[in-house]
Amino acid sequence: MNQVLILTRNILAEQEMQQKLQALNYEVYCSTKFFERCSQRVNTVDFFQYFQYVMLSETICESEVMELVPLIENPSTRIIRKVETQATEMDHKLLEEGLLNAIISREDSVDELRECLYTLKRELGGKEQLDKGAKVVQLSEKVSLMRTNSLQKMSLSTEDNYKLLDVMHHLSQTETRILYLLIQAGSQVVTREAICHEIWNEEVNKSHLASLSSTVTRIKGKFEQTSLSHKAIQTLWGKGYRINPELLDRIQKSEALNNVVSNG
């Protein structure tokens, strides 16, 4: 069983996270006293060796996190910063510098936590080694940022591709499936009816068509923050939809982008 130590100012604030971790079969130790001992610079190095993960609660302020990280640093321990809804600029900086291994949100689902911790576990098992040049990648719709060599293997060649990857990680399952269908069609137009049939696997009705229109609009909106010169999905009235040729070309040339869509 993997052990997680949560350092916090308030144990009650960690109940939800503790339950999620326990649902994933992690042994969780939550402590305010040990946090105080660390803050007072009491010798605690030997204690950390019993934990594969040390989680720093959102109840701990940035300056305290900066003091704690050097005390915790250990080749066999992964440091995770927990935030409520948004990581701060300092959190990002610590992640970029490799002083934190991941940032998660209190709102992250059990599924999102599972994938984040699994990737960190691979590093702990020696299958992956942390690379100081590794990219930071967002893993969930909330926060779940990770700096890891295994994700670096996605070979993001440009900042534009990195932005595209970030957007694609924010697509819902239905949005990803629609994008996948359009990618499979290449330069061909896919009728709205054909997409509806693939998504809902039943006779197409007005409700399906309306839902498809709304979903395509959301997809277009999510890609607006990227450098694409046109909408991610082209609408051909009376015919259907077609993927933006520029986006199609980037996805086909990038293993990282291709994997996200294919595995979605």
Question: In terms of topology, how is this protein built?
Answer:
Elements: E1 2-7, H1 15-23, E2 26-31, H2 33-39, H3 45-48, E3 53-56, H4 62-72, E4 78-83, H5 89-96, E5 102-105, H6 110-124, E6 136-138, E7 145-147, H7 149-152, H8 159-169, H9 173-185, H10 192-200, H11 206-223, E8 233-236, E9 240-243, H12 245-253, H13 255-262
Parallel strand pairs: 1-2, 1-3, 3-4, 4-5
Antiparallel strand pairs: 5-7, 6-7, 8-9
Domain OmpR/PhoB-type: 134-245
Pfam families: Trans_reg_C (PF00486)
GO molecular function: DNA binding
The whole-angstrom Rg is: 21 Å
CATH superfamily of the largest domain: Response regulator
Query: Any guess at the CATH architecture of the largest domain?
Result: 3-Layer(aba) Sandwich
Largest sheet, spatial ordering of strands = 2-1-3-4-5-7-6
Q: Helix count?
A: 13
InterPro entries: OmpR/PhoB-type_DNA-bd (IPR001867), Sig_transdc_resp-reg_C-effctor (IPR016032), WH-like_DNA-bd_sf (IPR036388)
Keywords: DNA-binding, Transcription, Transcription regulation
GO molecular function: DNA binding
Pfam families: Trans_reg_C (PF00486)
Quick structural summary:
By secondary structure, the chain is an alpha/beta fold.
What does this structure look like?
The chain has 264 residues and is α/β, with parallel strands linked by helices. The protein folds into two domains: 151 residues, Response regulator (Rossmann fold, 3-Layer(aba) Sandwich); 103 residues, Winged helix-like DNA-binding domain superfamily/Winged helix DNA-binding domain (Arc Repressor Mutant, subunit A), CATH 1.10.10.10. Helices cover 48% and strands 15% of the residues. It contains 13 helices and nine strands. Strands 2-1-3-4-5-7-6 form a seven-stranded mixed beta sheet, with helices on both faces. A two-stranded antiparallel ribbon has the order 8-9. The chain is elongated. The two termini are 29 Å apart. GO terms for molecular function: DNA binding. InterPro entries: OmpR/PhoB-type_DNA-bd, Sig_transdc_resp-reg_C-effctor, WH-like_DNA-bd_sf.
